[in-house]
Amino acid sequence: MGHWRDGTGTLYVLDPEPGAGPDGESRAAGIPLEIAASYRARTRGLLGRDGVAGALLLTPASSVHTLGMRFAIDVAYVDRRLTVLAVRTMRPGRFGLPRPRARHVLEAETGAMERWGLRAGTRVAIGRPDA
Q1: Any bridge partners for residue 126, and if so which?
Q2: Is the dihedral of CA 107, 111, 114, 115 positive or negative?
């Protein structure tokens, strides 16, 4: 995946159904994405916010906490190949355990990942405006 930098991008949820597209995968509508790759950006995450438009990608990361959060979030643990390992909902004031093999963590408002069809085994793609 190369070296990630703080910034914005687009998250695509890939549909693994055979015949969905020319390569067997179709892309869902693009989801606005914030990328937090620096230590400072990862540490801040969604703290102090009242919500998030789209999703936040923490990289590298294998666990998160919701101490100081104002709202519950959906958390997806993603491996190096951008395959979702697990999706969890976390209420404010919780610690998440580190997830083996996780390289990235996606965060979104509660219910968003279900609407997007994001679940264990789903692949995602990241589009960068500067790429």
Answers
A1: 11
A2: negative
Give the integer Cα–Cα distance in Å for 109 and 71.
8
- E strands of 1-131, at which residues? 7-15, 26-27, 31-36, 55-58, 73-78, 84-90, 104-109, 123-127
Closest among 34, 110, 38, 41 to 72, alpha carbons compared? 110
pLDDT digits (tens, 9 = 90+) for 68-105: 899 999 999 999 999 999 999 999 999 999 999 999 99
CB 131 within 8 A of CB 125: no
Q: Which of 93, 29, 36 is nearest to 65 (CA)?
A: 93
What pTM was estimated for this model as a whole? 0.87
